[in-house]
Specification:
With 143 residues, the protein is mainly alpha-helical. 79% of the residues lie in helices and 4% in strands. The chain has a two-stranded antiparallel sheet. Helix 1 runs antiparallel to helix 2. Keywords: Membrane, Transmembrane, Transmembrane helix.
Length: 143
């Protein structure tokens, strides 16, 4: 079971990374790609082709990451115990998911404060995941 929990943890990390790439792709497009001259149209088109798929699968990657985190948390809690840094990271990723669902279905204003909180927590999650990986053995409540 520990192997399954580890696999789910890595699926969560990669899903999160794929979802996070969305921000960077849009930022680079806004700051650099849009400003390229028309003689670089080939590069602009290639970048936007890739960006189209990153944006398209952002939601799915976030959902997969969140489901994997829930599975990882469940298995690790039942067989080893509760990692405090892991629990904090899991709660944060679920809040990011809930904000994303809120933005898609309820408040579609992509310039609203919910987007700022969604992005900020996504970046804070980088530190939380790193902290979880480094210190989960020390900050573990054994079952």
């Amino acid at each position: 079971m520990r192997g399954t929990a580890g696999l789910l943890g890595w699926i969560a990390v990669w899903g999160y990374i794929i979802a996070l790439i969305n921000y960077f792709m849009k930022y680079i497009n806004k700051k650099y790609i849009n400003k390229l001259s028309n003689d670089k149209k080939q590069y602009k088109d290639l970048y936007r082709f890739i960006m189209k798929y990153v944006v398209k699968y952002h939601k799915i990657a976030g959902i997969v990451a969140s489901i994997a985190v829930i599975g990882h948390l469940y298995i690790m809690y039942n067989f080893i115990g509760l990692s405090i840094p892991g629990l904090i990271a899991a709660i944060t990723i679920l809040i990011v998911l809930i904000l994303g669902i809120y933005g898609v279905f309820i408040n579609r204003n992509m310039r609203g404060s919910w987007v700022k909180v969604h992005r900020t927590l996504a970046f804070i999650l980088i530190v939380l995941i790193g902290f979880h990986v480094m210190f989960s053995r020390f900050l573990l409540i054994h079952r």
